[in-house]
Design a protein that fits this description.
Elements lengths: L1 H13 L11 E7 L18 H9 L1 E3 L2 E2 L5 H10 L3 H4 L15 H7 L3 E7 L11 E5 L9 E4 L2 E4 L4 H15 L6 E6 L37 H5 L10 H4 L9 H36 L6 E7 L18 H4 L3 E4 L8 E3 L3 E2 L3 H9 L13 H4 L10 E6 L12 E6 L2 E6 L17 E6 L17 H17 L7
Parallel strand pairs: 1-8, 1-9, 2-11, 3-12, 4-5, 4-8
Antiparallel strand pairs: 2-10, 5-6, 6-7, 9-10, 13-14, 14-15, 15-16
Helix pairs in contact: 2-9, 6-9
The structure holds calcium ion.
Amino acid sequence: MLRRNFLAASAAAALPAFSKSGRQPNILYIMADDHAAHAISAYGSRVNSTPNIDRIARQGVRLDNCFCTNSICTPSRGVILTGQYSHITGVKTLNDPLDPARQNVAKLLQSGGYSTAMIGKWHLHKNPSGFDYWNILPGQGAYFNPAMIENGENRKYTGYTTDLIADHSLAWLQRRPKDKPFFLMCHHKAPHRNWQPAPKYAHLFDGQTIPEPANLFDDYSHRSQAALKARMRVGEDMNKSDLKVDIPKDLKGNDLRRWAYQYYMKDYLRCIQSVDDNVGRMLDYLKAEDLEKDTIVIYTSDQGFFLGDHGWFDKRFMLEESLRMPFLMQYPRELKPGSINKDITLNLDFAELFLDYAGLPAPADMQGRSFRRNLAGRTPKDWRQSMYYRYWMHMSTDHYVPGHYGVRTKTHKLIYYYGKALGSTGTTPADTPPEWELFDLVKDPHEMNSVYGEPAYAKVTATLKQELARLQQQYKDQPSE
Ligand SMILES: [Ca+2]
């Protein structure tokens, strides 16, 4: 605790307490659901163009190694709000609520002088706490004419949900108390499954062929049973609600995967186009109101997503496309336009980042670290060189991804699938034997070949196992039996 205070004090000495204006900056936090970084043109997307989201990257910084600590909706949201791992918050799976009595960053900003609001997809089961105003979708929410809950009152709105979430956000910005800085969490439902686009984009990409990833036809050889047995294959693990057309009965195997990929991706990308439009509306508002300089704008997603990579859709695995979060941020008072940062940053860090900018102390039981200095191009010398991940839904029969944990460094990733060792019930395909995977991210960036057990990797394996144990101890997690 003493060391933490010392670090906070040195960070404060190195940077102005709030912003150069002497005020606490506004924070506009825009988060999509399941928007993978490789479907954003600022990240070099081969499949679509996101001109408005790209504006944030152009005006600020792009994080290339921002990772989630548990790649699934509800747990990631719990981590972001509390700055604590899933095993601390208790939000380990999609079914676990976030206890409103727990400390969270909105409460801290609220008591630290901010006007706070949460609008859009919440998905933490119990009502939000720490927000002056909230208007949330119940559960996953609907793409059209959504029911919403506004400060505890049931509402029903007409229209396309992505547009409505931005409408409500802009209306709140317009009527907010102008004598306080604001913290607005604007959470889109899109582009979550089952990918229902707005009518105006229903025909976007018609007649085009979306480029396929190189490993669309992955056969899962040279890897764990977990990869082979996961039920998230494009085509064979999709249904009519996903594809909106009947699946031709004669299509099988790779032909089915190639055919379904086009339907899946076009709807997924059409949904993103509406998110992008609405990011543009928010940015235009800040500019028109002369709020740009004093407002931190972040665009991110609760985790990544497989876009046909490994032949999959969905997330959950500690593999790159699922682990990586897009994170773009503009803040003209501190960030150099067009910068790129490659430090390992985590959703675990967001709460402390916000508090740092607000000039407020972070509670000692938060487990992340503010990356404010990293964003300004001055990474602390003792910044983390590895990250800890854990996915807990080994009992889920949705996609049969077994529970696993692992460690990622800049060059390697070690994953332990503990299978049914931690109490999955019944017999499901997720009951894979305990097994390890090791990827050499330099030689094998697409993670096609596990080198676990190869003599040439014995030394790095031993080092990573030590690091994994160290991280579990640091974050107060327990290894599987
Ligand atoms: Ca999600």
